[in-house]
């Protein structure tokens, strides 16, 4: 499957639009604008989760879901000398921060800054300090706290990386926030395929882009209670463990280019997962298997535990270098996830029995 110009333009714009946890609104506007022609109705909740609905009057409801937020930093403290100390918003990685350019989303607009770090010459007698929250600071070129504040920068402002989406060797998509804007892209493409194919589904489909996954699955917890679905298929990213310094005995063996990853975990419902596996086998869609001993760490857990238990399953996309600014996914894998979700939906009937016995 080739990527159309319109879909790649959407993906690029969507990934490049800063949408940190709790401040997802700009990315959500991009997503809703794209999905609007392919659904019957679009709704949002009070915290910014968006969902497009096909067949909104149907009694049996199926969710396909991704999360919209990206990791970032908060302005936490401004020194008298005009340096800015930070705290995490989600699982931001200190190791990659030094020397990175940042965008500070101030009250007067975006201000450019850099994560400063002492030169190698000056660290020789310091046992080479490791970047950590306590010693990370942003320099925006101001000399005093008053000057920082005059730029519109206050405690509580967001700080994001401006790194942009690109394609690598015609095989990979690379970007700052593919975790998990690539998920939002994939579920939008499923909606598009349903519209273009003119396939009729006998249930209500809720294409859901949730907020605040990175800090506790909060958006999914909220929206599960609002939609009250009968089943949910969640898509998120998982680790490509084939790169150096990853223990496959601990993290499992998943690889970019080898297909979607279907998860086994307590929160993953057997019947929904088996439906996905049967679909993959019938349509010769390559897939990989992975296991989580307690939780998946994705919105799957939120849906599974909501409303007395929503039968839920997880289709993950292998990704290299998670929570960095060069997250990387296989273009083939992206297409296979889209096809797997789409083909699975075509197998669902409104009288589907989901109880184990």
What's the gist of this structure?
This protein is an alpha+beta fold.
Give structural notes.
The chain has helices at residues 5-16, 25-35, 145-150, 178-197, 218-227, 248-251, 270-282, 299-304, 331-347; strands at 41-44, 50-54, 61-67, 72-78, 83-89, 101-106, 109-116, 137-139, 158-160, 166-168, 172-175, 204-210, 231-239, 261-264, 288-291, 312-319, 327-330. It is globular, with a radius of gyration of 21 Å. 28% of the residues lie in helices and 26% in strands. The protein starts with a helix and ends in a 10-residue tail after the last helix. The model has no long low-confidence stretch (mean pLDDT 97). It has nine helices and 17 strands. The longest helix has 20 residues, at 178-197. It is an alpha+beta fold and 357 residues long. It has an eight-stranded mixed sheet with strand order 1-2-12-3-13-16-14-15, with helices on both faces.
């Amino acid at each position: 499957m080739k990527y159309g110009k319109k879909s790649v333009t959407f993906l690029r714009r969507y990934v490049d639009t800063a949408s940190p946890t709790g401040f997802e609104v700009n990315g959500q506007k991009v997503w809703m604008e794209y999905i609007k022609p392919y659904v019957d109705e679009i709704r949002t909740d009070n915290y910014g989760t968006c969902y497009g609905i096909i067949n909104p009057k149907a009694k049996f409801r199926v969710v396909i879901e991704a999360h919209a937020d990206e990791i970032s930093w908060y302005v936490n403290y401004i020194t008298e000398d005009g340096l800015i100390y930070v705290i995490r918003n989600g699982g931001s990685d200190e190791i990659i921060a030094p020397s990175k350019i940042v965008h500070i989303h101030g009250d007067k607009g975006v201000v450019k800054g850099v994560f400063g770090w002492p030169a190698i010459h000056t660290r020789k007698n310091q046992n080479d300090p490791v970047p950590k929250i306590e010693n990370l600071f942003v320099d925006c070129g101001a000399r005093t706290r008053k000057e920082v504040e005059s730029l519109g920068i206050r405690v509580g402002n967001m700080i994001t990386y401006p790194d942009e989406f690109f394609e690598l060797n015609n095989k990979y998509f690379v970007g700052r926030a593919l975790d998990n804007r690539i998920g939002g892209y994939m579920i939008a493409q499923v909606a598009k395929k349903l519209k273009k194919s003119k396939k009729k589904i006998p249930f209500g489909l809720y294409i859901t882009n949730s907020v605040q996954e990175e800090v506790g699955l909060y958006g999914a917890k909220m929206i599960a209670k609002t939609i009250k679905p009968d089943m949910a298929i969640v898509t998120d990213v998982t680790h490509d463990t084939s790169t150096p310094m990853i223990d496959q005995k601990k993290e499992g063996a998943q690889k970019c280019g080898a297909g979607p990853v279907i998860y086994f975990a307590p929160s993953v419902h057997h019947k929904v997962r088996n439906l996905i596996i049967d679909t993959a086998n019938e349509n010769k869609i390559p897939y990989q298997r992975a296991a989580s001993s307690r939780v998946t760490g994705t919105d799957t857990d939120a849906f599974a535990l909501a409303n007395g238990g929503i039968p839920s399953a997880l289709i993950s996309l292998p990704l290299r270098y998670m929570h960095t600014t060069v997250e990387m996914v296989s273009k083939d894998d992206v297409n296979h996830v889209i096809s797997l979700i789409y083909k699975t939906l075509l197998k669902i009937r409104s009288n589907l029995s989901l109880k184990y016995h």
